[in-house]
């Protein structure tokens, strides 16, 4: 049996911990420090540097760790051929070392467009063959009983590719240098892999899609970006015979439920049979049926959905079954369900507008998106990185130097002109429009928006003085809700009235 020196044992165990830690949590820094010891270079948790076009560059600590890992794996490989195989816990740690080394040597080098590859992509085949050949070589010295309890090459390749997709999605979708932004990235990683990546690799990889995720937070804070990062990072099996991932490319389907009537929501989600309602001239396949198992359906503004639809969504969340509109045949939903709302669902449940049983089917995995105000309160200087990213999005085809210069100019204007106490009520969405306004006009006027938001309606003063009839009061309130919701249908749902009643109240002249 091969023997490990004390320093090799320490390095092997430290690399094993690093391989399975959440890369967005402080434990990752501790694990890297344990590997490198005195050679570790101090850096912040969010220390991955970005170029002007948003590309990621490798960190010095990771470069140094990869060199150590590559040297150690070859030494242990050679020693086992002479002294005999590693056994038990040490064999497992050696497998972790091989996994870590091959991830950075092969999977992490995949081009961005191969994060969601089409079936049969020649570059995926090449990487797979190189990865499999090297893994088989490095694991060959292990005894047969040790190799038999390890993951197959194709399953591990699928897991490593998922790690690559997840990190890429979180890194590119969820920007920000504050502690709240860092915690958000760590929470999204857990939504994908749970808190225990080892257990996920062993048994949970095929079950996480069955757990719904609820994303909450203020309007404009980036809830859909969180949903994208989760939805586009689902496990995809790898078929070693076809040498490709099962299923085709990206499969993230987003629906804004508040923008559709209840009938259209049913038709879009569940599909319908010909003749199910007026205008249903042919059968329709719904998005739940179209979404492949490795994808996700994102239900935005679920807090605004009609109670009749909530009942049907409860069935999907609870048993993953549904039926097309106008038929009784039961169908199965195979993908991930992600929902989001900016509403206070506790208040909505108390008011009877949101079903408690649906909430308790969604809340097992909940991600809370911080407001921009929270992020800047923690780290005011973080606005510079956000502005740089948003300018880069506008000028994505420009020279990097030009984008950097403009980002600095816009950032200086915003930090010099906007009050430090400004809370950015529109969150990232508002900041993006501010950036665009400064680029175009070199000005931004948020006070008008704030004044419009906080101005007290005159009819409330009249009501407090007892100067309105019941009809006038209801008409005024209906108009206000209609203005907030942007349509008769969503206003009717909030008010608990028929759509025609709301329309007549809004259109009345008192």
Automatic annotation (TrEMBL):
<protein>
    <submittedName>
        <fullName>Transcriptional regulatory protein ZraR</fullName>
    </submittedName>
</protein>
<keyword id="KW-0067">ATP-binding</keyword>
<dbReference type="InterPro" id="IPR002078">
    <property type="entry name" value="Sigma_54_int"/>
</dbReference>
<dbReference type="GO" id="GO:0006355">
    <property type="term" value="P:regulation of DNA-templated transcription"/>
</dbReference>
<dbReference type="GO" id="GO:0005524">
    <property type="term" value="F:ATP binding"/>
</dbReference>
<keyword id="KW-0547">Nucleotide-binding</keyword>
<dbReference type="Pfam" id="PF00158">
    <property type="entry name" value="Sigma54_activat"/>
</dbReference>
<dbReference type="InterPro" id="IPR003593">
    <property type="entry name" value="AAA+_ATPase"/>
</dbReference>
<dbReference type="InterPro" id="IPR027417">
    <property type="entry name" value="P-loop_NTPase"/>
</dbReference>
<feature type="domain" description="Sigma-54 factor interaction">
    <location>
        <begin position="174"/>
        <end position="440"/>
    </location>
</feature>
């Amino acid at each position: 049996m091969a023997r490990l020196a004390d320093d090799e044992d320490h390095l092997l165990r430290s690399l094993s911990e690093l391989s399975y830690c959440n890369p967005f949590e402080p434990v990752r820094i501790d694990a890297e420090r344990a590997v490198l010891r005195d050679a570790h270079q101090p850096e912040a948790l969010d220390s991955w540097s970005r170029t002007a076009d948003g590309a990621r560059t490798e960190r010095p600590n990771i470069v140094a760790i990869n060199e150590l890992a590559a040297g150690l794996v070859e030494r242990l490989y050679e020693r086992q051929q002479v002294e005999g195989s590693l056994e038990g816990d040490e064999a497992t740690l050696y497998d972790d070392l091989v996994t870590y080394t091959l991830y950075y040597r092969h999977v992490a080098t995949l081009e961005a467009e191969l994060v969601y590859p089409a079936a049969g992509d020649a570059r995926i085949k090449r990487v797979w063959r190189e990865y499999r050949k090297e893994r088989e070589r490095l694991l060959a010295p292990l005894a047969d009983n040790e190799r038999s309890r390890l993951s197959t090459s194709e399953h591990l390749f699928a897991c490593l590719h998922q790690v690559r997709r997840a990190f890429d999605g979180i890194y590119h979708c969820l920007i920000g240098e504050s502690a709240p932004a860092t915690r958000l990235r760590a929470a999204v990683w857990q939504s994908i892999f749970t808190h225990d990546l080892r257990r996920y690799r062993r048994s949970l990889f095929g079950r996480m899609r069955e757990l719904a995720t609820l994303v909450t937070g203020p309007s404009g804070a980036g809830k859909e970006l969180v949903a994208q990062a989760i939805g586009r990072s689902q496990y995809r099996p790898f078929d070693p015979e076809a040498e490709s991932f099962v299923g085709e490319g990206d499969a993230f389907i987003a629906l804004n439920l508040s923008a559709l009537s209840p009938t259209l929501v049913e038709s879009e989600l569940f599909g319908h049979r010909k003749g199910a309602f007026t205008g249903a001239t042919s059968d329709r396949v719904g998005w739940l049926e179209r979404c492949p198992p490795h994808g996700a359906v994102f239900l935005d503004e679920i807090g605004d959905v009609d109670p009749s639809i909530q009942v049907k969504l409860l069935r999907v969340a609870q048993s993953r079954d549904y039926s097309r509109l106008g038929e009784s045949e039961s169908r199965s939903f195979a993908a991930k369900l992600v929902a989001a709302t900016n509403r206070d669902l506790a208040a909505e449940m108390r008011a009877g507008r949101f079903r408690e049983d649906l909430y308790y089917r969604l809340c097992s995995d909940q991600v809370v998106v911080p407001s921009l105000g929270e992020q800047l309160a923690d780290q005011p200087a973080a606005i510079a990185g956000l502005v740089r990213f948003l300018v880069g999005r506008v000028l994505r085809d420009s020279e990097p130097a030009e984008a950097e210069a403009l980002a600095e100019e816009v950032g200086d204007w915003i930090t010099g002109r906007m009050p430090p106490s400004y809370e950015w009520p529109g969150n990232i969405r508002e900041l993006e429009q501010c950036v665009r306004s400064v680029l175009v006009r070199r000005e931004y006027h948020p006070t008008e928006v704030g004044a419009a938001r906080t101005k007290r309606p005159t009819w409330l003063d009249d009501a407090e003085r007892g100067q309105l009839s019941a009809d006038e009061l209801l008409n005024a309130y209906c108009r206000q809700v209609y203005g907030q919701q942007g349509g008769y249908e969503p206003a009717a749902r909030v008010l608990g009235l028929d759509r025609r009643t709301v329309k007549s109240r809004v259109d009345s002249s008192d």
